Amino acid sequence: MTTIEPYQFHFIKHQVQQLVRTYQSVNDRHTIRTVEMLTEEAIQPFFSEEDKEAQSLIRQFFDSSLTMSKSLTILEALKKNVRPFQVPSVKQTEKLFRKVKKLKVPDFSQTDLRDYTYLAWDDIGSQSKFMIVNTQKGYQGIYGHLSTEVKKGICPLCQHESTVSMFLSLTKSGGDGTYTKRGNYICRDSEQCNQQMEQRETLDEFVSLLQMR
Predict the structure, then answer these.
(1) Three-state SS for 70?
(2) Domain extent listing, the chain
(3) d(CA 103, CA 126)
(4) Can you tell me which residues the record assigns to a coiled coil (predicted)?
(5) What is the pTM assigned to this prediction?
(6) What average pLDDT does this structure show over 186-211?
(7) Tens digits of per-residue pLDDT, 50-99?
(8) Is 8 helix (H, G, I), strand (E, B) or coil?
């Protein structure tokens, strides 16, 4: 079975939704065929030709009678190929945020972790956001102040227009003990951000920016 990442699944989902909208709004057969070819070219690289079950599901997308409801049913079947986010242990999480006193970590046992490229939660009492990102260097823990003010803007993590708030993290800037505030306007709702994430390069860039010394 081919394994894909959550953000790749969301990319595939977005491509399929565009295809459904084309089926529902376009009459020109040539245009429809072009969109079908582009969609297939976008989706196929994620799956091995030997993965017969996945290939069978993918073929079902290319049907002019496809509806949003039916596409979601097919996508749900394809979702079993998604590698879920691996939640670090309590000890690992505490180590990631060792400077935080009385850390409150949510219970993710009932969460469908196949939807998440990164984990995040808000501490309303301290107006803080905590993020766990699994990078090539291992788990990275990021936390900072999340403003209560909201506005519409492009989130640098998922690259979609969303309701965003300013997130600021204190970063140690050198050996002299000084700290620098770094951050940006990011999705207020981290669950929505994960649902909108179709690549992870910008997430990794954001993590690197906050950890830069």
Answers:
(1) helix
(2) 6-81, 90-211
(3) 11
(4) none
(5) 0.91
(6) 95
(7) 999 999 999 999 999 999 999 999 999 999 999 999 999 999 999 999 98
(8) helix
Count of residues for the chain? 213
Q: pLDDT tens digits, residue range 23-51? A: 999 999 999 999 999 999 999 999 999 99
Interatomic CA distance for residues 50 and 70, integer angstroms: 25
CA 170 to chain centroid? 24
Quick check: 22 and 34 in contact, CB under 8 A?
Answer: no
Mean pLDDT of 170-176: 66
Burial of 177 (0-12, 13-18, 19+ CB in 10 A): exposed
* C-alpha distances in Å from residue 101, one per residue of 105, 107, 210: 12, 18, 21
- Helix (H) or strand (E) segment spanning residue 87: none
Which residue type does 64 have? S
Q: Which CATH topology does 6-81 take?
A: Monooxygenase (1.20.1280)
Output the six-digit token pair for 33: 């065929």
112 is written with which tokens?
A: 């469908």
